[in-house]
Design a protein that fits this description.
The protein is mainly alpha-helical and about 500 residues long. The chain is about 80% helix and about 0% strand. It is built from 23 helices and no strands. Helix 3 (about 60-70) packs antiparallel against helix 4 (about 80-100), helix 8 runs antiparallel to helix 9 and helix 8 (about 150-170) packs antiparallel against helix 10. The longest helix is centred in the middle third of the chain and has 35 residues, at about 215-250. It starts with a helix and ends with a helix.
């Protein structure tokens, strides 16, 4: 866990800086400057741009992480494996762009009644998708050679600073809304250019121009894996974007704006989990290749345990302060409190089961995951189609929660049955017990002050005393205690006294 601790602490610090900027953008400036319809448009374009990138990469991102350990060799330019990845992704980019053009009329008819503004800006999905795809390819390569930090900075911090600048320019009428949309559609170009320069600086870019020297037998294996993993990843991305797309069609962009804003607030709470898995993911194929099942089991349990305790803490911080938080938001966001509850419950469940996706998709039984994803995709579509007209955005949140829980249960028990690996530790119950206790006390304990800030401080003190402190003192997770101690030492080193 040494390399995980070192890099994940760095990426976590950078990610939290990005989190602050992200909250400033989507939690404050978006709400102040933009209407809910405009928020819905921007978020929907970005979501579909991400879907475009996943359609285009043809499974190369996950197959790169899966097979790169077999070809990692600086002296032999990694046998041209990075170049093969880029060529496949470029073919996918061309095909996906053509599909966007071909299906424009169908998309227009589907969204014309309730989301006409989206139809007007539909084609800006393409540059968003291209920018995200190229950045994703470079970022994945750097993850493969264990150079994570700069890519995280470019994506989590720099990109959000640029969005902040565009928001302020729009607020002060230096940009029209049309120019604002265009700027946010092209904004990936700047972090991408910096990541490109960074790759050149470390002498890694020449590996992308090397001659492809991959044996024919390996090529067949890579193609087979990529196709199955592509279907799996694509299904997962559809699940993440389907709710927003269906809300835009059934309820309009204003409802989409509220829903996607709450989704962002939830995703921001996943920063520690993403920091851990970003560094842990490249280790999984290495353990499979070297048949280190004991190390795999320890990694699985470590990531799951830490993720559960941190995600419960983040959930408590927001949920106990939900009244105070939603007092700051416009009245149109009132229904978002239930969206937060259901989505965060689903995401907490997802974070607890940790790296099950990496373990399964990097194993010899990776094809089974496609079946699980297809089941999930059908369930999510059916549940959204049924629940959104009945319960609005809360129905979409319930559908997503049910899908996430079911998907993780299927994956986890299959891995347990097939490989004897599971994420469970008896000490995980500490987190659940103390979380439940904190929620119960917080529900019945009256606020000792009518002042907003004092009420928030009281709630935070309750979380620290009833959840965080017992978790730390009882050493519910040894690695988490190590993180806390190292983080405390690092914070002290930054102080001038």
């Amino acid at each position: 866990m040494g390399i995980i601790q070192k890099d994940s602490i760095r990426t976590m610090i950078i990610s939290y800086l990005g989190l602050i900027l992200g909250y400033l953008n989507k939690g404050v400036l978006f709400i102040i400057i933009l209407s809910t319809e405009e928020i819905g448009l921007i978020n929907l374009l970005v979501s579909l741009g991400m879907l475009f990138a996943q359609l285009s990469n043809l499974g190369t991102v996950n197959s790169f992480l899966r097979f790169f350990p077999f070809f990692r060799d600086q002296k032999k330019d990694h046998f041209g494996f990075p170049q093969l990845t880029v060529l496949i992704a470029l073919v996918g980019l061309l095909v996906t762009s053509l599909l966007c053009l071909v299906f424009y009329q169908d998309v227009s008819q589907f969204y014309a009644e309730r989301s006409a503004l989206f139809v007007a800006y539909y084609f800006w999905i393409i540059p968003i998708g291209i920018g995200h795809l190229l950045f994703l390819l470079l970022e994945t390569y750097l993850r493969g050679v264990f150079k994570n930090v700069f890519a995280v900075f470019a994506k989590e911090v720099l990109l959000r600073i640029l969005v902040t600048i565009s928001l302020l320019l729009y607020w002060y009428d230096a940009l029209s809304f049309n120019s604002f949309v265009i700027f946010n559609s092209l904004v990936y170009a700047i972090p991408l250019a910096l990541l490109f320069v960074y790759t050149i600086k470390f002498g890694e870019l020449n590996k992308w121009n090397a001659k492809i020297e991959i044996p024919r037998r390996f090529r067949k294996i890579i193609v087979s894996y990529s196709l199955f993993n592509y279907a799996n990843t694509l299904g997962a991305v559809f699940v993440l974007t389907m709710d927003a797309m269906m809300i835009a069609a059934f309820l309009g962009l204003s409802a989409t704006g509220v829903y996607t804003t709450i989704l962002y607030l939830v995703s921001a709470l996943q920063v520690p989990y993403r920091s851990l898995t970003r560094v842990a993911a490249p280790l999984v194929p290495v353990y499979w290749r070297e048949k280190k099942m004991k190390e795999m089991s320890v990694l699985y349990k470590d990531i799951a345990s830490i993720s559960l305790l941190i995600s419960l803490f983040m959930f408590l911080v927001v949920w106990i302060n939900r009244v105070e938080i939603f007092e700051l938001l416009p009245e149109s966001f009132t229904d978002g409190v239930w969206v937060f509850l259901f989505i965060m419950l689903g995401r907490t469940f997802d974070m607890y089961f940790g790296i099950n996706s990496f373990i399964l998709t990097n194993s010899k039984r990776y094809k089974v995951d496609v079946l699980f994803t297809l089941i999930l995709l059908g369930a999510i579509f059916g549940l959204n189609y049924w629940l959104i007209p009945l319960y609005g955005i809360s129905g979409a949140a319930v559908a997503t929660m049910i899908g996430i829980v079911s998907y993780n249960l299927m994956r986890t028990f299959f891995i347990w049955y097939t490989f004897g690996l599971h994420p469970f530790r008896i000490k995980n119950l500490y987190g659940l017990v103390f979380c439940g206790t904190t929620l119960m006390v917080g529900h019945y304990l009256p606020s000792f002050s009518d002042q907003w800030i004092l009420s928030v401080l009281q709630n935070l003190a309750l979380v620290v005393l009833l959840y965080l402190l017992p978790i730390y003192l009882l050493r519910a997770d040894e690695k988490l205690n190590e993180y806390i101690i190292k983080g405390r030492k690092y914070a002290r080193s930054l102080l001038p006294f």
